[in-house]
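Title: [Solved] NADP-dependent 3-hydroxy acid dehydrogenase YdfG 3D structure

Original question kept below for reference.
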Amino acid sequence: MENHEQTRTALVTGASAGLGAEFATQLAERGHNLVLVARSADRLQRHAEQLRAAHGIRVEVIVQDLTAPDATARISADLAAAGLTVDVLVNNAGFGTAGRFEEIPDGRDQEQLMVNVVALVGLTRALVPGMLARGHGSVINVASTAGFQPSPYFATYSAGKTFVLNFSLALRSEYRGRGVRVLALCPGPTQTSFFDTVGERAALGGKMMAAHAVVRAALVALDRDRAYVVPGLGNSLNAHLTPRRPRRLVTAIAKLVTRSVLDTPAPAEPNQPQAA
Ligand SMILES: NC(=O)C1=CN([C@@H]2O[C@H](COP(=O)(O)OP(=O)(O)OC[C@H]3O[C@@H](n4cnc5c(N)ncnc54)[C@H](OP(=O)(O)O)[C@@H]3O)[C@@H](O)[C@H]2O)C=CC1
Ligand SMILES: CC(=O)[C@H](N)C(=O)O
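Solution (posted by the thread starter after getting help):
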């Protein structure tokens, strides 16, 4: 990462677990001050204390449910009250919904889209103008390999990740030459709490990557000002060599893989804040 960013502030959503906690750790190792956002207050506070002690950086915690329609406004107010400007935004918070569309509990997909899409757009809209005014900044949006094609039984999740990927690519184009980098991170299956939340969905198979390797790949890609990155050779080959047309065939092939989700149980209490 460029030197001028090393003492700047990064805001990471979903920093209480998985990829977000790892983003916080690796950005702290790079000398960034941090703002950690999620619902699980105890986990955030514990991680913040560890990072302050290990790196001597400033770490603030904002406990916020990103399904709330006013989530972005509340976070912006907290940042202003703390006198913080954000130079690196990591829109990472997210969860999955899986199964037959009509069987997913009513409102659940909407909550998922509030976190995975609406809050991501809202925070980007809130924080990018400051980056543009200062002439520098970075946005990492966490998409997924699920965003490269329609995925039956992950219909809204995969469509949301396609949004995140294309939104990021479009913004990157708008901000070229204006000092703001935008990167879409497209991980394949990764060892985090994600599959506890969505149910026993690891049944889709494939080798899981470690969260630290995924985040390292993202930060290297940001250093290189890449548009998007698919960590892991197998994931990258799948994402890039799978034909995109005809779309009906692509969807049918995806369904062969994703239909195994129907054989696995749904979680009892989906997407609650993480236990301390
Ligand atoms: N793991 C994987 O295989 C893959 C994951 N991804 C994406 O990576 C991102 C991170 O997921 P991952 O680390 O794997 O999963 P985890 O379940 O480990 O972490 C999810 C994070 O999102 C936060 N979060 C969930 N719901 C909300 C909410 N309503 N409000 C605020 N924060 C919330 C959680 O915090 P809390 O519960 O405290 O609110 C937690 O910090 C997601 O966008 C996911 O779609 C993409 C591809 C593959
Ligand atoms: C959960 C994900 O988004 C991942 N890309 C997967 O296909 O398992």
